[in-house]
Amino acid sequence: MSKNLVVLLTAINTEYDAVRRRLAGPTPHLHKHGTRFETGLVRHSTCRVALGLTNVGNESAAVIVERAVSEFDPAAVIFVGVAGALWDSARLGDVVFAKHIYNYQGGTSEDAGLMARPRSWEVSHPIFQLGSELARRDEWADPPPPGEDPPRVHIAPIAAGSVVLNSVTSAHARWLRTRFNDALAVEMEGAGVAQAAHLSGSQVAVIRGISDRADGTKGSANDQNWQPRAAANAAAFATHLAVNIIKDKEQLTMADEDSTRPTYHTQVSPTIHNSTVGNITGFVNNGSSYGAVSPNATSTADLIEELDRFSRLLEQHHVAGDLDDATLTGAQLQLDTARKSAQAGTSESKHTVTTALERLRGLVADIADLAAKVVPLIVMAGGLT
């Protein structure tokens, strides 16, 4: 598959549905061992996502992470769900972005009691930096119900074990809050996700919406009300993070390409006096010529004709199995944007055309033939008046 994709995993259907509602055109994808995923684009973006359900527990989550990484080779793995708050600083509906994840149940039983021997995994540094920035911007959340404050993002450790915590007075609850007093939330999958992602060499993040206070109210009417809301808030931040992971990756890729950018050859028509407009005849890279744009393509009509030709080429690669449904949908969306903006004929729309084509190039970057043919289109769009 492609590094221009983010895997989003959840443990229960409420969490899964919260993420799925944020995807455009989700398409089933069946793993050879029967694990079911759906792939699609985060709405209003070019970020591709593979969504999966792990079931409850660290062990199950670790297995599905391993399968997702081997199947999709993603840019990152993000686990999305709900959790119980260990401290009152997190309000119901708030989101916890894990700084690191404890597997808190490791220990040794001594005469003096249970001595903690935990393991912990830090969130990937680039994702932690990006998530912290997005939390500071505070632009990720959906509008809250009237009269309510918007949810906040807390950057803090999360504790993950195999026990459903639903008490503040039990021995287990007191031990957890004493030994892991910096953890803000408790859940049951994050440790398995983090360990499997690290072993697979993948960047990882764990994002949890606070649905209860782990205080005996699980299953109550209040919990049933807050669980979908907390899941929706976690999904909002997680998909916002995923979109920006891909944006960062595309920017780094473009910067790398700029440092080794090939020479583009243009031939200026003698009948055109604007020196910025040329007949794009192709470009040369290491001696090989790629003629994606016809020799006489100099006008908006010519560009639109070339975009239509590229659209047909995308369909051919899709039929051949080179492009999956989600990538084809995203690529055609960018082509439509480029067509409409080119027809507008303004200086602002010219920038929109170029941006859409740059995003198109990112979507098809894994297919050298297609990626090569987008570059002359970008050059041509830049020459339009």
Automatic annotation (TrEMBL):
Which Gene Ontology BP annotations are present? L-methionine salvage from S-adenosylmethionine; nucleoside metabolic process
Q: Which GO terms describe its molecular function?
A: adenosylhomocysteine nucleosidase activity; methylthioadenosine nucleosidase activity
Note the superkingdom of the native organism.
Bacteria
Gene Ontology cellular component? cytosol
Q: Which residues form the Nucleoside phosphorylase domain?
A: 6-241
Name this polypeptide is given: Nucleoside phosphorylase
Q: Which organism is it from?
A: Nocardioides albertanoniae
